[in-house]
Write a structure and sequence with these properties.
Number of helices: 12
CATH class of the largest domain: Mainly Alpha
CATH topology of the largest domain: Glycosyltransferase
Structural class: mainly alpha
Oligomer: single chain
Shape: globular
Strand order of the largest sheet: 2-1-6
Distance between the termini: 21 Å
CATH architecture of the largest domain: Alpha/alpha barrel
Largest sheet: 3 strands, antiparallel
Radius of gyration: 19 Å
Bound molecules: glycine
Number of domains: 3
Number of strands: 6
């Protein structure tokens, strides 16, 4: 059954895809101004550009408008040159920017680009340590290289490698996916089910050396997106790589649910407190809601995952333009995403991945019989 609030939000987000396409023309939207709607773009996609391709593909899923399938293909083609970039965030680029396009629209070109990205990631796999390291070109990371790991290198990456294995019949992709996911449990997930973003490891065997963070408050705090990325990553791992990851996905989600009893938008870091001077992060909440909807599908006997995802989405819709009849801003902006509070960088902005996950949630909530299995 459809819901009129969700239908209106989807319409607004489709308008936003149009207004974004008019502005970006061959570049990738990165973060946007919430008053003017103006995007800051990147030429090569940085780590965020794949979400623009995924968003266009979701737009096609929501509307059936073939122009959006063509747009998704154009964006996917722009991602291809990144196949050998030395960054683990190619998982974001090639899953959301290419494989999602293929899975949603059926594009064969997108499947080929997704496979190119999977091959690139496989080349970076450290077999002794059982992990794809962050890499020397990892975006926005201070300590990068062969002995560094980030939880945000698991979402997309594990799904992409697992999909590539199924698509080609080559078991090396799945083996790398499973070992990469398993190693990050040891490196980044604490015993209480919370997540630390980053870790250093011994490159000869993958053993944990120490934990730290690039974007959270400190090594002992829980950055909102660290937890949210882990939730979506292990829900994807359970679906695409092995059901043995399901208990981890559930444990991560339970930690989140214990700390968001009312389902509102979270602060940028769970240890930052709340209040008018503490930025919230709509993108973290959107990622988590998408993860909860994946878990709803994977663990149908649990009704709370869907209920809490709905509460998060309802809260997010209060941050989507237009917020009332007199709001003259471009429609479909998901406001109040916090890119990087540590550096005071784009702390109250539209974020392209926040848009992606909100639209994924809205489509799935409005169309339960034909859920996107992404
Ligand atoms: N690098 C992923 C993030 O900032 O969320």
């Amino acid at each position: 059954m459809t819901n009129s609030r969700y239908t209106a939000a989807i319409e607004a987000m489709l308008e936003r895809i149009d207004s974004t396409a008019k502005q970006t023309d061959g570049t990738f939207p990165h973060y946007g101004d919430i008053e003017s709607g103006e995007w800051t773009t990147t030429a090569d996609g940085n780590w965020t550009g794949g979400f623009w391709g995924g968003l266009a593909a979701l737009g096609f899923a929501a509307s059936g408008d073939k122009r959006l399938a063509h747009l998704a293909d154009d964006i996917t083609a722009q991602i291809l040159p990144r196949q050998n970039s030395d960054t683990a965030f190619r998982g974001f680029l090639f899953w959301y920017g290419a494989a999602v396009n293929h899975l949603v629209t059926g594009s064969d070109d997108a499947a080929q680009t997704a496979l190119a990205g999977a091959h690139g990631l496989l080349t970076s796999f450290n077999d002794r340590a059982g992990i794809i390291p962050l890499g020397a070109e990892a975006e926005e990371a201070e300590a990068v290289g062969e002995g560094a790991a980030n939880i945000d290198a698991v979402p997309g990456t594990v799904a992409l490698l697992s999909w590539a294995s199924a698509h080609t019949g080559d078991p090396r992709f799945l083996d790398a996916a499973i070992r990469h996911a398993q190693r990050h449990i040891e490196l980044c997930i604490r015993t209480d089910g919370s997540v630390c973003q980053s870790a250093r490891f011994d490159t000869s065997n993958g053993a944990l050396l120490d934990r730290y963070t690039h974007k959270g408050m400190n090594a002992d705090s829980t950055w909102g997106r660290a937890q949210a990325w882990a939730m979506v990553a292990y829900a994807q791992a359970a679906q695409w790589a092995s059901p043995s990851f399901l208990p981890t996905a559930v444990r991560l989600a339970e930690w989140w649910l214990d700390r968001t009893p009312n389902g509102g938008v979270v602060s940028w870091d769970f240890d930052a407190g709340t209040g008018p001077d503490v930025p919230i992060d709509t993108s973290a909440t959107a990622i988590a809601a998408a993860a909860l909807l994946k878990l709803d599908r994977l663990v149908p006997e649990r009704t709370d995952f869907r209920d809490r995802a709905v509460a998060h989405v309802e809260a997010l819709l209060d941050h989507l333009t237009p917020t009332g009849p007199h709001d003259s801003r471009p429609a479909g902006i998901l406001m109040d995403g916090c890119f990087d509070k540590r550096r005071d960088f784009a702390t109250r902005n539209e974020l392209i991945w926040g848009d992606y996950f909100l639209l994924e949630c809205l489509i799935n909530l409005n169309n339960r019989s034909d859920t996107l299995k992404l």
